[in-house]
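Input sequence (63 aa), recorded before submission:
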Amino acid sequence: MFGIGMPELLIIMVIVLIIFGAGKLPEIGGAIGKSIRNFKKSLREPDEIDVTPDNKKIDDKKQ
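Predicted structure, token format:
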């Protein structure tokens, strides 16, 4: 996996633990999980079509 072995992953995890602290890790993990879930959901769903009227065109017709 990108040339990262177990020792490198442990070093990265220790640095993250030092920077954010043990209390913030569950929040960060949850936020990353939600981000990945929303990204996957957006890939599966078709693009939404914006059907809201353009107010400038409507205002021009009234004048």
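Checked by second reader. Residues 4 and 10 are 10 Å apart (CA to CA).
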